[in-house]
Each structure stands twice: as structure tokens, then as C-alpha cells.
Predict the 3D structure of the following.
Amino acid sequence: MSPNTPEPPAPILRPKMPELDTIRGLAILGVFLYHALYCQPDLASWSQPSRLLLTAMWPGQKGVNLFFVLSGFLITGILMESRSRPRYYARFYKRRALRILPVYLVMVVILGITKFAAPSFLVLSLLYLSNVTPLFGIPIGYPVLWSLAVEEHFYLLWPLICRNFSAKKLMMVCAGIILLSPASRYVSFLFTPRSGEDFHIYEYTWNSLDGLACGALLVLILRQAQVTRRQLAGSCSALLLGGLVLMCITIPAGILSIQRPVGVAFQPTLLNFCFTGLLGLFLAAGSGEYAKLVHIKFLQFLGYISYGLYLFHDFVLRLYDRIVAREWHYVQSTNDIGHLLARTLVAGAVAVMAAYVSRKYFEDRFLRLKD
């Protein structure tokens, strides 16, 4: 090749895909802003400008759906890549344990010492049952743990399926999960008591599988089919736009409400379609000439510390309310947007610092043992 010949584009699937850290960063930023700014007692009592700002943070909670799609994509890719290797199960579970357990156990201990969650909830959380504690009459004492329980249940079952099913059968399994999940959520809606917004069915593993299945289906298609970058971008653009259009069309039917059947059944489905399209677009851009558009340093940094930040951020917000807010005589009923933004900035800085220290000086010690 001559010096002036442009480098050929990288494969879509690569050992390292930096754009995925950007997606992690987007997901954790959305979740943090949702917990920091939207989870307030009564938005109706705020001024209109403040209410508009806070309501704009509502979509941030769907960052969890984006995490699920990304996890399905990555874990399925890892399993398909390694299923012909020796010690398939031992290798996978040891590596997952080194990634997940150390800081998770630290978080559970901290919650117990500070009494931020009930002992009964923490005991079940040690068994990765934090997402089904309402079935035992125990409130979800620390909300961010529910999604980690879903992920852990996925890790327990999916390696067995990936090892014993062909890629074609795996794609059929994923498609079946995507098709059946709305029915599962609708049945849960019919048989679950509802009290205002305290309505926990999305947390149940069987109601959260379609996001994981969407990500898994995407990586299986990319591994099995000869998909060009342009084809991937076109298909995923259509998927993303189609999901958004369907979301807008079904607003009158209640797609945005978890108190109405249409929203309960199909809201996660359409979101997962959108996020799968977004993931595909990032892969297409990140492996080609537009890589700089999806390799965003700030978001990649948040992606680098995303696991610790996800675990810590809600605790830091609660700690702020327990200590700092009490000293300042901060009362949420005053509806002071300035204090709320200050809380977000201070707690966000502390949570980011804690997550960075955890990743660099604690988690990385265990991650180096994975190889």
C-alpha cells in the first residue's frame, strides 16, 4: 500500500470496540440524571420551567434497557467465541465473578452498615434475588440492584443454551423471547396489585429478557450474515426510527404509562428496538470513517467507571440527603431548583470520584486476574 492509500475500515465486530464504552456512558448518565432530578415527590407543585426540566430527565431511567441490550450483545458474543474452547463454563463464570462480585459485595456491606436497606433485602440480594423481593413481601430497598439480579440470572442460563444450540436455533430462541415478553408483562399486569407508581413487574427477570434477547440477536446476525457497514447502518436506522414512530403513534393508547396495558406490555419492546438500532449505528460508525463521532472521551470515561457508578450513585444521593441536606435545612417541598441542581452536581462529583477510585485501585486488581 502506498502512504497515501487510506486504511481499510475495521471489521464491525472487533476484540475492542471503544464505541461501546460511549454507549455505557450514555446509559449511566441517563440513569444518574433520572435518579438525581426526576425522582421527586410531586412534580406538579413545581414551577413550569422547573417541571419541564425535571420531566425531561424521565427517559434517563430507560438507560437500564440500554444496558440490557448491550449486555446481551457482549455476553452472547463472548459465549459464541469461546464455546469450542476447553473449560467453557469454568472460564466464563470465573471471569464474570471477578468482574461483578468484589464491588457488589462491598456495596451490600456498605448498605448494611449504614442501614440504607433492610437486612432481609440484603440477604436476598446476596443470592441475587433483589428483583423479586416484592414476591416475599419485602420492598426493593436499593433499587439499582434489581437489574444486576436480572443480569446474573441471564449469566446462569444463557451459557448452557449457547453451548448446546446452533446459531440458527439461538436466533429463533431470541425471536421467541422478544415475541413472548409483551404477553408475559401483560399477564403480570393482570395479576399484580397496583398502588400508584409502586408497581414492580419490570424488575422480574421473566419480564426483562427481551432487551437481552435483542442484543443477542444483533450479534448473532452480525456473526452469521455477511452484513456490510452500509446495510447495518440502514437496517438499524430503520429500526430506531420505526421504534420512535411507533412510540409516538401509541402515546394516546398509553404507551408511556406503566398503569395501562399497552404501556406495560409494549413500552420496553419499542425501547429495546430503538436501543438495538442505536447500538448497530454505533458499531457501523465506530468501525468506519465516522469513528470520531462515537468515540466521545467524556462518555467513554463514564463507560469505563459505569459499573461502580451505577452501584454507588443512588447511595451517594441518599447520603447527601441524610447529611448535607439536613445541615442546610434543605426541604424538597420548597421546590428550590437551585438546591436540587447543587445536589446533583455535588453528589455526581462524589459518585464519579468514588467509582473512579474503585475501578482503578480495586476492581482492576481483580480484572487483571481474568486472563
